[in-house]
């Protein structure tokens, strides 16, 4: 018989790593943070509340990452997905613009537009009110569009 950890948490390891990668800015740091988060999650999985285990695991990833308090990286790996809410542009310019956003805003875009999490789940993960998630997400989208446009002008 498979454990709750195996059936409910392990399917979300890719999302945990992707989120950690955007927070940390490097594959090595993301692997370290993901591993620490999974180790912390394992003993808690038997008491995992009903609902989305992905949001629960991502909250543990965020807490694990925030304990390290890393500096904001200069470059980030490309995300696996793009959503229609992001500005038009080539992937490289969007990645460069996203990497320039403060981590709190970048985090909102990744959790909502890449991971497709609900506002209440993002609020739980980030430890903020759902209204704050909506406000930060709107600001992040505007910042992203402005930065993509600025990078386009610099390249021209």
From TrEMBL:
Domain RNA polymerase sigma factor 70 region 4 type span(s) in chain numbering: 93-144
What InterPro entries would the database entry show?
RNA_pol_sigma-70-like, RNA_pol_sigma70_r4_t2, RNA_pol_sigma_r2, RNA_pol_sigma_r3/r4-like, WH-like_DNA-bd_sf
A GO MF term: DNA binding
The UniProt keyword set, sorted, is: Sigma factor, Transcription, Transcription regulation
Q: Does the keyword Transcription apply?
A: yes
Alphabetical list of Pfam families matching this protein: Sigma70_r4_2 (PF08281)
What top-level branch of life does the organism fall under?
Bacteria
Among SUPFAM superfamilies, the record links this protein to: Sigma2 domain of RNA polymerase sigma factors, Sigma3 and sigma4 domains of RNA polymerase sigma factors
Show the CDD domains listed in the entry. Sigma70_r4 (cd06171)
Tell whether NAD is among the UniProt keywords: no
- BP-aspect Gene Ontology terms: DNA-templated transcription initiation
The entry's family comment says:
Belongs to the sigma-70 factor family. ECF subfamily.
Q: What is this protein called?
A: RNA polymerase subunit sigma
């Amino acid at each position: 018989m498979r454990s709750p950890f195996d059936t409910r948490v392990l399917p979300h390891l890719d999302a945990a790593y992707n989120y950690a990668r955007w927070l940390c800015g490097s594959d090595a740091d993301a692997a370290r943070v993901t591993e620490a988060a999974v180790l912390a999650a394992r003993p808690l999985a038997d008491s995992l509340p009903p609902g989305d285990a992905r949001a629960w695991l991502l909250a543990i990833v965020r807490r694990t990452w925030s304990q390290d308090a890393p500096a904001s990286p200069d470059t980030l790996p490309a995300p696996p997905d793009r959503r229609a809410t992001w500005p038009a542009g080539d992937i490289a310019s969007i990645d460069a613009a996203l990497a320039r956003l403060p981590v709190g805003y970048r985090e909102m875009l990744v959790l909502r537009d890449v991971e497709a999490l609900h506002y209440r789940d993002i609020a739980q993960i980030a430890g903020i009110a759902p209204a704050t998630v909506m406000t930060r997400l709107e600001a992040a989208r505007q910042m992203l569009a402005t930065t993509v446009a600025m990078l386009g002008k610099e390249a021209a």
